[in-house]
Design a protein that fits this description.
Blueprint: E1 6-10, E2 22-29, H1 35-44, E3 49-52, E4 58-59, E5 64-71, E6 76-81, E7 84-90, H2 95-105, E8 129-130, E9 133-134, E10 139-146, E11 151-156, E12 177-187, H3 197-205, H4 213-227, E13 236-239, E14 245-247, H5 248-257, E15 263-265, E16 270-273, H6 275-281, E17 288-289, E18 292-294, E19 301-303, H7 310-328, E20 337-338
Parallel strand pairs: 2-5, 3-5, 4-20
Antiparallel strand pairs: 1-2, 6-7, 7-12, 8-9, 10-11, 10-12, 13-19, 14-16, 15-16, 17-18, 18-19
Helix pairs in contact: 3-4
Bound molecules: flavin-adenine dinucleotide (FAD) and NADP nicotinamide-adenine-dinucleotide phosphate (NAP).
Flavin-adenine dinucleotide (FAD) binds next to strand 3, strand 8, strand 12 and strand 13.
Length: 339
């Protein structure tokens, strides 16, 4: 198949942090059948290849000396069977648009994941999650091109090895598997999840029915719009750090020193600490340095109002990680993929 990658292509408009960078080559595809030719193009020149969706979870630390494969494929097929609905969705489709289309058609399960930026194909990579629901709860399978095997493959949910903001695509299949489509199993019967305090409070305050998926989606959208910066106005990549997970012993030691610590129990006697609380407590909320900083409404969101280079962002991230380690003895991991 004939493809024509663009040489020396700017990436500044293709990542939500608005980091200026250049790719050696950029290829935008609207047909998954172009994927093998793109892989061959990169291989024949000895170049690395990265897949790009809408760039809402990446940091370009510098220029990308390889081929950027931008997924703009589209299309959805639907199979209804009783109260189950199977949707096979092309990787380049917009995630939030999918959520809203499903609600319109009475297909439920995605309501807590409304307004998450990005493409459908990127959603399994970090097992996107919000308000107590993760993609894995509705994912049936993932299809794509296995780079080393040179063949199309279908991966079951088990094979995706999902974890908290984690999957096989960040480990064994990192840079080895190009997701072309995602199949979701939704329901025509509602079963809402409203455990998160902010969600419950909003539904109650606005007299909305917590059992109605449309009401839950409306609440999620309103809460997110009130506390998260719109990347089009203030460049950002959502949460910059993952919530760290610690042992009960470490949690109890921290709780003694900080009685207002925000943490949630997990299985196996472990605790998830709210990274936003750690940053807030350490004084990073709303702080800016050289045009880069942390959002005043939500400390976990790094913002780049100065449209600075990735190196500036990474220098700040390193200082924050060191500071949090010194103050709390806790290691913070960066959530977006750094290139
Ligand atoms: P990109 O940023 O383009 O890519 C992310 C990674 O996935 C890269 O490593 C890329 O190579 C890989 N990738 C992308 N597409 C494919 C493919 N087809 N095949 C193989 N690999 C691929 N995330 C959450 O989990 N929950 C949230 O609530 C949430 N809220 C956010 C709010 C804001 C304001 C922002 C800016 C981000 C938020 N995010 C959240 C992060 C982000 O939206 C998700 O990670 C999203 O899935 C990224 O999609 P993308 O298309 O932009 O991926
Ligand atoms: P929040 O509601 O203020 O909560 C702060 C943190 O506490 C969250 O990180 C959340 O963990 C955790 N938490 C809250 N209630 C919980 C409960 N009942 N059980 C377990 N953990 C609980 O968070 P927020 O910043 O406004 O974000 C709301 C949701 O959107 C969160 O789920 C968050 O992950 C998601 N979000 C993600 C991104 C991203 O880029 N990844 C960006 C914005 C928002 P979890 O993060 O594990 O849910």
């Amino acid at each position: 198949m004939n493809i024509e990658p663009i040489p020396r292509a700017p990436l500044g408009d293709l990542n939500t942090l608005a980091v200026t960078a250049t790719a050696d080559y950029l290829l935008t595809i609207d047909d998954a059948a172009q994927i093998p030719a793109a892989v061959d193009f990169a291989r024949s020149r000895g170049l690395p290849l990265m897949v790009l969706g809408q760039g809402s979870n990446v940091v370009f630390g510098g220029d990308y000396a390889g081929l950027v494969l931008r997924m703009m494929t589209s299309g959805t097929t639907v199979k209804e069977s009783g109260s189950d609905v199977l949707l096979e969705v092309a990787a380049g489709e917009n995630w939030h648009q999918l959520v809203m289309n499903c609600l319109d058609r009475g297909y439920y399960g995605l309501e807590n994941l409304a307004l998450i930026p990005g493409t459908v194909g990127a959603a399994p990579v970090q097992n996107i999650g919000a308000y107590g629901v993760e993609l894995e709860s509705v994912l049936e399978s993932v299809s794509g091109w296995h780079i080393d095997r040179g063949e199309w493959q279908l991966l079951s949910r088990q094979q995706c090895e999902f974890g908290y903001r984690d999957s096989v695509f960040k480990h064994a299949l990192k840079d080895r598997f190009i997701i072309s489509a995602v199949t979701l199993r939704l329901r025509t019967e509602a079963d809402t999840h409203t455990d998160y305090q902010a969600l419950r409070d909003y539904l109650q305050a606005h007299a909305l029915d917590a059992a109605d998926p449309r009401a839950v989606a409306a609440a999620v959208i309103a809460i997110r719009q009130s506390k998260l910066p719109d990347p089009a106005a203030i460049p950002n990549a959502g949460s910059f750090f993952k919530n760290p997970v610690v042992s009960r012993q470490q949690y109890e030691q921290l709780l003694q020193r900080y009685p207002d610590l925000v943490a949630y129990p997990l299985a196996n006697d472990r605790f998830k600490l709210a990274a936003g609380w750690l940053l807030d407590r350490a004084g990073w909320k709303g702080k800016q340095r050289n045009g880069v900083g942390f959002f005043a409404e939500q400390a976990l969101v790094m913002i780049n109002p100065g449209h600075r280079a990735g190196a500036e962002l990474m220098a700040l991230a390193e200082d924050v990680r060191r500071d949090i380690q010194q103050q709390f003895g806790v290691e913070l991991d960066i959530e977006p993929r750094v290139y």
